[in-house]
Amino acid sequence: MMEFSLSEEQEMLKTMARDFLENECPKTHVREMMEDEVGFSRELWKKMADVGWLGLVFPEEYGGSGMNFRDLTVLCEEMGRALLPGPFLQTVLLVGMPILTAGTDEQKKEYLPKIASGDMVCTLAVLEEDGDFWPDGVQLKATQRGNDYIINGTKLFVNNAKGVDYILVAARTRRATEPEDGITLFLVDTTEWGIYIPPLTTMDQTRQQFEVTFNRVAVPASNIIGELHKGWSVLKEAALKTTAALCAEMVGGGEWVLETTVNYAKERTAFGVPIGSFQVIKHKCADMYSDLEYSRSLMEWAAEAIKDDDRDAHMAVSMAKSYCGDTYKIVCDHGVQIHGGIGFTWDHDMHLYFKRARSSDTAFGDAYYHRELLAQAVD
Amino acid sequence: MTSENLEALRREVRGWLRENLPKGWGTPEYVPPIRYSRESHELGREWTKKMYDVGYTGFNYPKEYGGIERPREEVAVIYEEMGRTGTPGGPLSLGLLVAAPAILVHGEEWQKKRFIPKILSGEESWCEGFSEPDAGSDLANVQTTAVRDGDEWVVNGQKVWTSMWEFADWGLLVAKTEPDAPRHRNLSYFLFDTSTPGFSRRPLVQMSGEAEFGEMFFDDMRVPHKNMMDEQGRGWYVAMTALMAERSFGGTGFSGGMAAMGGLGTSDLLGANALVELAKNTKRYGKSVWEESAFRQRIMQTAIELEAMRWSGTRMAAKMMKGTPIGNEASVLKNFQAEMRQRRGDLTCEILGAYSQMVRGSTRAVDEGDHVYNMLRARGATIEMGTSEINRNIIAERILGLPR
């Protein structure tokens, strides 16, 4: 049964998250992290762990609090609103979840409590030169040598790679007719010899990305997450959840843009009246509100579908990602335009959201990709 | 209410339906009357009367105004059984939707007793005179006048875009009674008999070629003073009650009005299946339209928007269940569904290519010309029940709090 209103606990989580992030992650912090070589704060990370966010969806036996996926998206909305820098989705959903769902008992006991306590920060490395999230894109090789696998090659678009403790790397361990076959997931300790992490100069500095080059890096076979050659399906499930969580971030960010823009339109005067009294401005604001309303509906549907393990979850996520991606971009377009000159400056925060909207749209398949996926389902 | 009693009622309703539904109902032999025709109106009228006489309709109104008071569980059983077979609709009338709710709130005791029972029984049909050639979005700019003459008012003017105009026995009318009073306080509201001398009506043909709406003319039409509803000069407020009744129908989302207007059934998740099939079966330049990326993208966008509408409707309904009024939110739903209907109409015709020129009546028209008709009819969707622009003003001013 789909529940579309927040429970009392979820309302509390939302309020707590907003207060926490307003105090701990104001725009001054975001801008500081944009200049930072690592791009996020370990100190803040630890505080997030202390209030229980990093173990939110993990079972209690692994140091988590056993809450559900919908609860997590409530948190993600607030993170999107605050433009929180750091690999939260990467650590919890892209690395933590594969360990939880496909890892061995030893791996779960070893890693999950560390993730929950904030002592283990992670990210995922899948994309390579073609920039697309698909099995054919995974070309980086891992070859067996004794009990180790030797990883050789370069990954691109790796979020916060510089400041993390572990990187989950998707590598090709054999050539098969099906591109999905032969992909293996390795949990790589970033302190290993032979890893080079130069920054990528990207538009959205609130979420820093890096190039990661592995120069004959040896990884023990015990660090394989899931089955050998069968990593892609694990990754796909993790990506599905992450995509839904990203939609929540996008809706949260879009709502900040709407609120900020509406407030500006009430205060800013031109020709002697508030610009919000002009119908051209009103109608843009109304469109922003409406687009966000429908984005929220699809996002909440996707989140509920994942929580309930619904058979429509894939469709719901593709619909939500495509619609939220388009919406976040156009809401930011209107936000910048309505702010006029000030909205075009570096000093105003609007461009931070504008750029976050773009990086979020391309992540895990843009709107065109997800519409094509939906089309293929009815081919 | 015991379950045996309810089961007995169920059997009773089932038996009654079997005996009283039109001959051949539910079989391919049954040919329904043409939409908006006199036959369809008469069928609806007779059917409603029959149901009213056995107590199967007329709920939610007090007994003294002809309401049928039945326990909720019984009403549910009756609706369930009728839903199972499907039934003919009601007469072509705004009686239940607009007239009865407005009369119940603003009417005098004699008006409630005289008019509501015959609305519930379907015997009398109603239309509403609201928009005028110079009063559309600016609804308060009514130019039709009513001048007092003894115990009567003499009405002169014109109304346009009257729904259910053709067979209405009674009409609701807003007219200017105080030419010098300020806006919103210069109007009064009347109930008038459409057989009164000086009243005439004619069809208003839309760009789709059919006359779903009408025009009404008043040429020294005399209305008794006692037929004024609420106080003199308070017509605007009665009109607002009537509009709210109409809009709450629109605002109930998918369970109610919007779905009917948008032509949406219960979703099969990919609500755009019909478009997919059409694209697969249509060849342009030697290949199926479905293979064209541009069309695939837009068809899937339609599927996404249909789902977004469905879930927004669900969320809105959940809010209403909790008792949160959603008045202004109706503008969000109304605009989206109307504009979406236009996008879908355009896309459908663009899939058809040259064949989008063939309309109803052509033997070569695809699907009897319905796609082209829907595309044309959808242009009215962003104009009726508040234009998209008026609804955007409502969203901006009443939800977002931007200055007027």
Description:
The complex is a heterodimer of chains A (379) and B (404). With 379 residues, chain A is an alpha+beta fold. Chain A has 11 helices and 10 strands. In chain A, helix 7 (231-267) runs antiparallel to helix 10 (350-362). Chain A starts with 7 loop residues before the first helix and ends with a helix. Helices cover 51% and strands 15% of the residues of chain A. In chain A, the strands form 3 sheets. A 4-stranded mixed beta sheet of chain A has the order 1-4-5-8, covered by helices on one side. The longest helix of chain A is centred in the middle third of the chain and has 37 residues, at 231-267. In chain A, a hairpin with a 2-residue loop joins strand 2 (141-145) and strand 3 (148-159). The mean pLDDT of chain A is 96. Chain A folds into 3 domains: 8-121, Acyl-CoA dehydrogenase/oxidase, N-terminal domain (Butyryl-Coa Dehydrogenase, subunit A, domain 1, Orthogonal Bundle), CATH 1.10.540; 123-229, Butyryl-CoA Dehydrogenase, subunit A, domain 2; 233-377, Butyryl-CoA Dehydrogenase, subunit A, domain 3. With 404 residues, chain B is an alpha+beta fold. Chain B folds into 3 domains: 3-91, Butyryl-Coa Dehydrogenase, subunit A, domain 1, CATH 1.10.540; 126-233, Butyryl-CoA Dehydrogenase, subunit A, domain 2; 252-399, Butyryl-CoA Dehydrogenase, subunit A, domain 3 (Up-down Bundle), CATH 1.20.140. Helix content of chain B is 44%, strand content 15%. Chain B is built from 12 helices and 10 strands. Chain B has helices spanning 3-20, 38-54, 72-85, 95-106, 109-120, 235-251, 257-262, 273-281, 293-321, 329-352, 370-377, 388-399; strands spanning 126-129, 145-149, 152-163, 170-176, 187-193, 199-204, 213-224, 228-229, 283-284, 287-288. In chain B, helix 1 packs parallel to helix 3 and helix 9 (293-321) runs antiparallel to helix 10 (329-352). Chain B is globular.
